[in-house]
Amino acid sequence: MKYFVSPYNKETKIKLPDKITIYDTTLRDGEQTPGVCFKKEEKLEIAKKLDQFKIHQIEAGFPIVSEHERKSIKNIVNENLNAKIISLARCRKEDIDAAIECGVDGVITFLGTSDIHLQHKMNISREEAIDVITSTIEYAKDHGLFVAFSAEDATRTDLDFLKRIYKQAESYKVDRVHIADTVGAITPQGITYLIQELRKEVKTDIAMHCHNDFGMAVINSISGVIAGGNAISTTVNGIGERAGNASLEETVMAFKILYGKDLGFKTKYIQELSEMVSKYSELKIPRNKPIVGKNVFRHESGIHVDAVIEEPLTYEPYMPEIVGQKRQLVLGKHSGCRAVKAKLDECGLDVTKDKLCEIVEKVKEQREEGTYINDDVFVEIVKSINKKEDD
Predict the structure, then answer these.
(1) pLDDT, tens digit, for every residue of 90-104?
(2) Counting beta carbons within 10 angstroms of the beta carbon of residue 65, is it exposed (0 to 12), middle (13 to 18) or buried (19 or more)?
């Protein structure tokens, strides 16, 4: 693997947990993106690709939603994937029963815990909330499930009350507690403080489920792990409600390249996974999307192209093949002779030095007039220059 990042990263001396669990919720929270509805077959294909990627856990859906949802989840369970299959459940017996019917390995139970949720959505007291949470955990554990409890709107919940909830959940043998940053309202410094405070009293695994309303979902998730958490919720392409969730590809590659923590994923499948989810969700991948965008390994500027031809790491932090991408040298108004020569070689064309300079000028001229210089256009430019010379 070839990559080159800032040597100053090592000077921070960050200690990460030996084991970090990534559970992907593309098929549940990702599908809650307005306008997205995966077909049963599409959910299965995404789950299989996630498993090929070696994801640790797949949150396959929300069983209580519908019979179709339950069939989709069962379809995934029956595939006998290596990843653990979990599903979402409200703190209600019927939700746990629906999950059990699907044959999942575990459940993520959730309840709003901030005062604004308790008063305006749940209409229950703090004490009632704790009773509901613990009784649900107990019921799910009695049925042999892996059980996580997610405090919805945890990052706007009173700290002492949040500690009480998690300690009570712990006493009922919960396997993991989740901090849901439901409206993306915390900062990296805030999540660091919160985790450090919780770790004074909570010993069980702590996961981050971060939303991206302020563009901080990935860094908040990573900051939470650095502070003492050990699990992260992600979605492919960062899809999800409103501004989306922590992006799987950005989180994984940040750990792998910037923090030197290889989580064992087959990153060469990232591009395929991204494009599959984009296709089935009908949500286009922005060209400048980190890791998977088409422009991430495309170069046009003459100065950049000259350097990249000599040594790709001059303008790339890692080689594109690591994530299943390919490098592209794009011709345009900023292109120079070396870029055009590389394109000529790629197309199997040979010209004199004088013609090369003419081609460069023609490329610039046509691009500024609004023509995109693809291979067909480029070949026509070369033909026109050669024809002019022949005439």
Answers:
(1) 999 999 999 999 999
(2) middle
